[in-house]
Amino acid sequence: MGLTVAVAGATGRVGRTIVEQIQDENKFSVIGLTRSDALIDSSTKEHVESALSGVPYVQVDYDDIPALVQKLEEHEVQTVICTIGMLGDDCSESQINLIKAADQAHTVQRFVTSEFGYMTRAERKDIDPGVDWFITAANLLKNSSLKYTRPVCGAFMDFMGAPSARSNITPNTIAIDVYNREACIPGDGTARITLIYSYDAATLIAKLLELDEWSEFSFCNGEDTTLGQALKEAEEVCGEKFNVTWLKPEDVANGDVPTMKIVEGSGIQPEEQHAYAVFGYQLYLAEGFNLPVEGRLGDKFPGFKPRTVREFLETVWGPHV
């Protein structure tokens, strides 16, 4: 347990899952970095974040780089994993400041950036204007003393398990709503996509800590499939046909897509749901979630076997059919 890992955004969706899996691997010490010690939204009184037992949580101010350096050194952190959601310039600035602090802290040697979805490249800027946030962070790390990697997971198959699957990811219904037996499939459903269960992705991030050498990109091992095939398997597991809407690529390009039913209690607003859908459908048609096959992280761990879409669906929905 000589290595101490700090997870920034540890009480968030992806962060909590990664902390859980680092704990489960039981090979490294982990602390959580969080903006606040208050885990309840004062305006709604709802639990929007939750702490994990046995994990020390450290309150930090991402606008104060010297204080961040002090916290990292005080806890003898050697690796920082950033899971702050890139939802705006302020979030990007938090990661940038954390990188600067990690580079200054004499204990920190490695940094994992907050990406986790698709492989962000400049040519995706027409779909995702926030691409610059990821590129800026990567360029800063290239010119730092830190060893770093950019994790690329693909698309979380958790959306096909909402609201029943074990998941910290915000329950959302995009493309395939198994609960309501409905689907909205962009194009003809044959574009390639890598789907992975969030806990399998988090396990790979935890295992990444065991490696001495890191590549610039760390591609996760999910199932390489299509939404058309995933829909077929969902129908087979449930034993019935879904009500399917096939979306024309030109409509997707124009943002003219229907909004699927929102999962009760998810907190997602209709305009947010629509924005998520447009982004996801456009990126799917561009095969942005189709990860390179060569050099995947899981190949370095022969005992690791990610769940397939079929296995995930049978685990979540098999008992309910």
UniProtKB/TrEMBL annotation:
Residues 4-134 form the NmrA-like domain. One of its GO terms (molecular function) is oxidoreductase activity. The keyword 4Fe-4S does not apply. Keywords: NADP, Oxidoreductase. Belongs to the NmrA-type oxidoreductase family. Isoflavone reductase subfamily. This is NmrA-like domain-containing protein. The lineage of its organism: Eukaryota, Fungi, Dikarya, Ascomycota, Pezizomycotina.
